[in-house]
Amino acid sequence: MAEVDPETLLEWLKMGQGDERDMQLIALEQLCMLLLMSDNVDRCFESCPPRSFLPALCQIFLDECAPDNVLEVTARAITYYLDVSAECTRRIVAMDGAVKAICNRLVVAEVASRTSRDLAEQCIKVLELICSREAGAVFEAGGLACVLSFIRDYASRVHKDTLHSAMTVVSRLCTKMEPADPTLPACVQALSTLLRHEDSHVADGALRCFASLSDRFTRRGVDPAPLAEHGLVSELLTRLSNAAGPAQATVSGPSTPGANTSTTTPETKSPASVSTIISLLSTLCRGSPSITHDLLRSELPDAI
């Protein structure tokens, strides 16, 4: 099909009823191609200005009848705009309900469906880019609970880079959480589970989230004890004691008496991770008498 001029593209983007949906999808695919192949940002934005096209793209997300395949291409187009210019973020945030609609796609995702999974993964990428400039808007839209639920339910069924992007979103959103937030208990429970996740990137991300939350409690002069309600302290001590890796196991080979074969499976811990653990324990102790009391009667000396 011949390339369609930008004005016609914009007109087609605003369609969405019956057979018009096909025209909308064609417009979305052509817009994605224009954005992806453009070698001149200024010229691209002149022909497909964000001030006109981003509201139209957000409006598609607000359309409850829009099918997943249309929404997936829409999310891709938004991603291309954000990749080209972070300034586009404010235009998306300015669209009432747009960020919340993007977050909600994670809640209703059915990853058994390829299209639905692709849409959810693209939404994670959009949220990651928005959070780099406007994390507060994503938090206010309920993004933290949506992304945590998505990780909990589908971590093993999405691409690893999507999982890591999701944790980046969670890490940024946790900096916006207040001690009195009603969603804090659910957040702490989810993060406590993620601390033991098999993917070290996810587990370390959860650790950084707890560091952000504890700093928030400290700045507000609030006891951070609620952060430790699901085994945070014991997990920190376990991580600290394993920081240098487990002890080396020596196995004697049966065919060669006296010859020993040493095998080790160290759990690698970066200095930054160990530093975060110690800093977090210190912050928790400074702010919470109950955590300090428990730590003094724990295996802290052995862990150190």
TrEMBL record:
The reaction(s) this protein catalyses: S-ubiquitinyl-[E2 ubiquitin-conjugating enzyme]-L-cysteine + [acceptor protein]-L-lysine = [E2 ubiquitin-conjugating enzyme]-L-cysteine + N(6)-ubiquitinyl-[acceptor protein]-L-lysine
Please provide the Gene Ontology terms (biological process) for this protein: proteasome-mediated ubiquitin-dependent protein catabolic process; protein K63-linked ubiquitination
Q: What does this protein do?
A: E3 ubiquitin-protein ligase which accepts ubiquitin from an E2 ubiquitin-conjugating enzyme in the form of a thioester and then directly transfers the ubiquitin to targeted substrates.
The species this protein belongs to is: Graphocephala atropunctata
What is the official name of this protein in its record?
E3 ubiquitin-protein ligase
Q: Which residues form the signal peptide?
A: none
Write out the similarity annotation.
Belongs to the UPL family. K-HECT subfamily.
Which UniProt keywords are given for this protein, alphabetically ordered? Answer: Transferase, Ubl conjugation pathway
Q: List, as start-end ranges, the regions of compositional bias called Polar residues.
A: 249-272
